[in-house]
Amino acid sequence: MSFRQFASRIRRRARDLPERVDRVVRETALICDRDLVLGTPVDTGRARSNWQVSVGVGETEAIPAYAEGDAGSTGAANAQAALAQGQAAIGSRQPGQSIFITNNLPYIGRLNDGYSAQAPAGFVQVAVQNAVEFVRNRARVLSGGN
Questions:
Q1: Is residue 13 part of a domain?
Q2: Is residue 9 part of a domain?
Q3: Is 123:28 a contact under the CB 8 Å cutoff?
């Protein structure tokens, strides 16, 4: 490869970099949101519904369950609605804007600590770790490494 070919290749990569980074940011947020929503134990559906994705500033209020129920009867409906909300918010993001994934219920910490027998303790940490691993893997791919 000549120096001229190498320089051309580097310029192309630099030109494409912002778009590639934006794609990784969006994909990472979707993965983290998915794992948070699906990892949250369900009784009434409120905890699962309260994973709120926003752009620019984090949400500060709790919301009611998308579909109220008991004993986990609305788990799938609440997951679907929460994931759709997250996808819409992430889809509205402009390059450079921060993405926030919040859950403002006062008991979300207890659920993450293992209070519910439906989910193991640390489901939030697992979701974040999965997102970190995704970024590491994407970075290797984008850099041309293995």
A1: no
A2: no
A3: no
Domain assignment of residue 46, given as a range: 18-143
Instruction: Please state the φ and ψ torsions of residue 125, each to the nearest 5 degrees.
Output: -60, -35
Please give the structure tokens belonging to residue 138.
């994407």
Secondary structure (DSSP) of 57-94: S---S----SS--STTTTHHHHHHHHHHHHHHHHHTPP
pLDDT tens-digit series, residues 44-87: 999 999 999 999 999 999 999 999 888 888 899 999 999 999 99
Name the helix (H) or strand (E) containing 23: helix 3-39
As for how many domains the chain has, the answer is 1
Amino acid letter at 119? A
- Report yes or no on 82 lying in a domain: yes
Question: What residues are paired with 100 via a beta bridge?
Answer: 54
Q: Is 0.85 topped by the overall pTM?
A: yes
In tens, the pLDDT along 29-56 reads 999 999 999 999 999 999 999 999 999 9
Question: Is 130 part of a structural domain of the chain?
Answer: yes
Looking up tokens 């996808």, which residue turns up? 87
Minimal CA–CA distance to 88: which of 30, 19, 23, 22? 30
- C-alpha–C-alpha distance, residues 132 and 31, integer Å: 10
